[in-house]
User: Fold this.
Amino acid sequence: MSRTAEVIVVGAGVVGSAIGAELAMLGHDVMIVEQGVPGAAVSGASLACIGSHMVDMEELPLLAWACDAWRTLDEEIGGFEYHPCGQLRFVLSEQELAAARAWIEVERNAGLDVKLLEPIEVQEVEPSLTGPIVAASWSKDDAVVNPFLAVRALLNRARDCGARLETHCRVDSLIERDGKIAGVRCATTDMSAEHVVLASGPWTTRLAASLGMNLPIRPHRAQCLATVRIPPSILRVVGACESGGGVEAGYTQIQQSRDGQVLFNTVLEDGLVDDGAQDRVPEVDAAFVRNSVEMLLFLFPDLWRVHLLRSWVRFEAVTPDNRFLIGPLGPEGLWVAAGDCGTGFTRAPAIARLIGQMLGGEHPAFDTTLYAPERFSCEHPASA
Assistant:
């Protein structure tokens, strides 16, 4: 395999795979470099909900476009179990009820099909949800996908358009010459490129540090549980009503997979950890298991006899304001697309579109100031 490309994309999770496919479709010579197996980090561990409801009010145009892009991808190539099951966000207090109404007003004004349901109406949408909730919001167009198959579908599209994929190849540092990016340095070889896109999640920080840049990205524990297979019981994605977007205390997601496993988590405390944690695969926290099971049974009390089967931990990349870093970074030819904050699956097609447009010198389709790396003090020494 040639060790030279026009563009090297570091990382073959959902974001890197989407970027690789987009750039290859635009005619760029692309190499995607993955330190392990594609989708084996947080992308494969994701519950992979595709939706714009209660994510970020300022990002609604981008989120709505990304959701449409996933539907189009399913129509064009399929094969990743796209399921438009809809999403409920349960409300447990009057304070949350006010927050839900505020979200719904903004989203309806933006053209989304969302509404607030009384408990009796919730029963019609999700009969098994019999816990004592106050209300729930309902976004009928939200969907789920199989995360592994979705990454594979994007990589297949990239390779069909001429992209190359190199797995089990860890990028250790970036190569810069005369103020321009020149490639990447791996354990056994150097790879040359005019452009490098860092789509490497929590590993992005140390790669940027190899050129003296300090990115404000930290690893965040993403923990999940799964039950044994049971008959169809949960029809929708069920999540907690949030007063703001991003990863925060009280986040819950519950859904049932196509093969019958109930997948669920509840994040009740800060999961930020120091750099290096993402290199290990720890066990889930006992408190996380207890809190998640309590929430599951609070909402779905009829599941009390169901046995847990497995658990897993991976690491998201989180920024201080819970938004991606997307755009040029440091030396000419270096780009970043990292900081998923737990919602990278939805955004992946839109991030790929932005990188493709910016790298090609086009005007971006969406407001990039929300994601501009320069909003933080991470300047390259030569440009500081």
Q: What stands out?
A: The first strand starts at residue 4 and ends at 10. The chain has two domains: 4-44+148-217+321-383, 87-140+219-316. The chain is about 30% helix and 25% strand. The radius of gyration is 21 Å.
